[in-house]
Design a protein that fits this description.
alpha/beta, three-stranded parallel sheet, about 45% helix, single chain, Calcium-transporting ATPase, cytoplasmic domain N, Rossmann fold, about 290 residues
């Protein structure tokens, strides 16, 4: 309980999904809310702060190693769990193991993106064996694990340099650089303020299926715009010369112009009838860490 209380103290002000889980667990156990000061989040590493006059660090073993503390990063006893180490002063007190269930519609969202011709990549800072287990269940095309914020940015820039159009979906502080660098950055509805600020699009629902739905609607909208432009240019290309040559009565030309506008508006209104496909009834879940 001491480890959990210390971790909750420095994580209480964090927007990271893992931080929220730690705080909720501490509150559910009725642990005291220890005051913390000088709290600082380290992107891709963890968080540090001062509790009762001592520095408390909570984060990955790799980051604690960089801080000069030895944290065991051996094999996990709990498959699929994300390990969060807690240190006070110069001593590593122990670790917390967190696991989360995949959203029921996550696999369906990836499958639908594949139907739309989108190649999917799981880009996460989680340990490789956790990421690969999640990637296998979701059916993504590629898994890049143990990636820091700057690594996510580099991966997005590399994909763009290869000629790909990249959409990045994220919700955390660590995702912000990659969200800003992508052709389209998509922040989830319950994501951090930093992620929403960096993204070019924020989904109102915190629902994985919203991503392929947004893509489908965007493609339909673009197709409608092209249809309207095609009709407008075609009409003017034919009607204007006929009107100039006097082959088309002004009243007929005016009526034809009005009809053209009605046709364009009516074609655009067809988008109102679009509705997302019903989500499949699935309850599959697997443990994962937060990306």
């Amino acid at each position: 309980d001491t480890i959990l209380a210390l971790a909750a103290a420095v994580e209480r002000g964090s927007e990271h999904p893992l931080a929220a889980s730690i705080v909720r667990e501490a509150e559910s156990r009725g642990l005291p809310a220890l005051p913390a000061s000088d709290v600082e989040a380290v992107p891709g590493g963890g968080v540090r702060g001062t509790v009762a006059g001592q520095t408390v660090r909570v984060g990955a073993a790799r980051w604690l190693g960089e801080e000069g503390l030895a944290a065991s990063a051996g094999e996990d006893a709990v498959p699929g769990a994300t390990r969060v180490f807690v240190a006070r002063g110069e001593q590593v007190l122990g670790e917390l193991r967190l696991a989360d269930a995949l959203r029921p519609t996550a696999g369906a969202a990836v499958a639908r993106l594949r139907e739309l011709g989108v190649r999917t990549v799981l880009l996460t800072g989680d340990r490789r064996f956790v990421a690969e287990a999640v990637g296998a269940q979701l059916g993504v095309d590629e898994v890049l694990a143990e990636v820091r914020p700057e690594g996510k940015l580099a991966a997005v820039e590399e994909l763009r340099a290869s000629g790909a159009r990249v959409a990045m979906v994220g919700d955390g502080i660590n995702d912000a650089p990659a969200l800003a660098a992508a052709d389209v950055g998509i922040a989830m509805g319950q994501g951090t303020d930093v992620a929403k600020e960096a993204a070019s699009l924020t989904l109102l629902r915190d629902e994985p299926l919203s991503v392929p739905e947004a893509l489908e609607l965007s493609r339909r909208t673009l197709r409608t715009v092209r249809q309207n432009l095609g009709w407008a240019f075609g009409y003017n290309l034919v009607a204007v010369p006929l009107a100039v040559l006097g082959c088309l009565h002004p009243v007929v030309a005016a009526a034809a112009m009005a009809s053209s506008s009605v046709l364009v508006v009516s074609n655009s209104l067809r988008l109102r009838r679009w509705a997302p496909r019903a989500a499949p009834d699935t309850t599959r879940a697997a443990p994962r860490g937060a990306a």
